[in-house]
Amino acid sequence: MSRARVCRHCDEVIINLDDAVYLGHEEANSGPGWEVWAHREHADLVGPDPVAMRILARVLIHRALSTPDE
Fold it and tell me: Cα dist. 31→1, 5, 20, 26, 53 in Å?
């Protein structure tokens, strides 16, 4: 059984598989994760996950502002 490919940008099923562009693999908290796909015309419009970017920004700000114990 093959899984339907869903466009990350528009959240619609990609019917024509020649139009599908593989963008990468996302890890999951448990399990193998999933592949990220987009329509060919939407591939350049997909950005990074905003939640992950916020978390990363908070970690980097905390590291920059904290003083190491000496």
Answer: 18, 19, 24, 11, 22
Q: What is the pLDDT of residues 17-34, one digit of tens each?
A: 999 999 988 888 888 888
- CA-nearest of 47, 33, 40, 48 to 3 is 33
pLDDT surpassing 70 at residue 70: no
One-letter amino acid of 45: L
CA distances from 11 to 14, 20, 54 (A): 9, 13, 22
Q: Please state, in angstroms and rounded to a whole number, the distance separating the CA atoms of residues 21 and 9.
A: 12
- Is the pLDDT reported for residue 68 higher than 80? no
Residues 6+ apart with CB under 8 A from 15: none
Find all residues with CB under 8 Å of 53, minimum gap 6, and list them: none
